[in-house]
Amino acid sequence: MDDRIRVLLVEDDQVDRMAFERFVELEGLPYDLEHTRSVSETRSVLDSEPFDVVIMDYWLGDGTALDLFDEVREAPVIVMTGSGGEEIAVETMKAGAADYLIKDLSSNYLKTVPVTVERAIRRQRIDRELRQHRENLEDLVAQRTTELTRANELLSNEIAERQRAADALRKSEQRYRLLAEHATDMISKHSPDGTYLYASPACQALLGYGPEELIGRDLYELIHPDDRAESRKSHDSITERPVVSTVRYRIRHKDGHYVWFETAAKPRFRTLTIE
Question: Measured between alpha carbons, how far is residue 73 from residues 37, 76, 96, 133, 267 in Å?
Answer without folding.
Answer: 19, 8, 11, 19, 78
